[in-house]
Amino acid sequence: MSHHIVQADNLHYTYPDGTVGLDDINFKIHHGESVALVGSNGAGKSTLLLHLIGCLTPTKGYIRIGDYPLNKKNLKAVRRSTGMVFQDPDDQLFMPTVFDDVAFGLINFGVPEAEIENQVMKALEIVGVSHLAQRSPHKLSGGEKRAVAIATVIATMPDIIIMDEPSSNLDPASRRRLINLLKTFTHTKIIATHDLDMALEICERTIVINKGSIIADGSTKELFNNEKLLAMSGLEKPLTMQGLR
């Protein structure tokens, strides 16, 4: 199923001030894979994710999302098959009610009005917050906002889900609900995170990025056992692998 593939070839990006954001990024993610993207702050994780949804344009190299090279001509089709959950839910939630926020993407994609309510409520039920449909998103807890942000993405039924630090600022119960929810998704998933314990549970594959370059790509468990690799990336072994929890 090529429509689930995410591929980067010789990807480079330099910010306007001359700072190198990405340096020769190469990878191919296949249908149904769950891949963690890890590295220290400033390593290039968010920069890479923004390229995958067309918010940034490579200085050099190219990206393929599904059947399409990512360019201006194909941007609408790419965004139709790819959904991103941003690090801060407030960057995604801006409508008067939760229902309106989840419906927004469906309306923009031209979903018939008769189908919108059903798809909105189904997405809210999947993430466990259908009771919040008529609430203002800005009056929700952090965990509730995160769930609604995920619902805005899955309502459009993308082939690929991209997440930037999805467990940040969640209490333990909300974090556990998120992990359990992500385990049920059959989508191709790319998750940028500092939460290595979560990555260990959800993602069989991990890409480690440091100073804009990929320095490792392989089995999550094997890479997380490599303390030298983790140290040079500003990370440490997950607590579950340290025998502390």
3D structure, described in words:
The protein has ten helices and ten strands. It has 245 residues and is α/β, with parallel strands linked by helices. The chain has one domain: Rossmann fold, CATH 3.40.50.300. It has a six-stranded mixed β-sheet with strand order 6-7-8-3-9-10, sandwiched between helices. The protein has a four-stranded antiparallel β-sheet with strand order 2-1-4-5, covered by helices on one side. Helix 3 packs across helix 4, helix 3 runs parallel beside helix 5 and helix 4 packs across helix 5. The longest helix is centred in the middle third of the chain and has 14 residues. The model has no long low-confidence stretch (mean pLDDT 91).
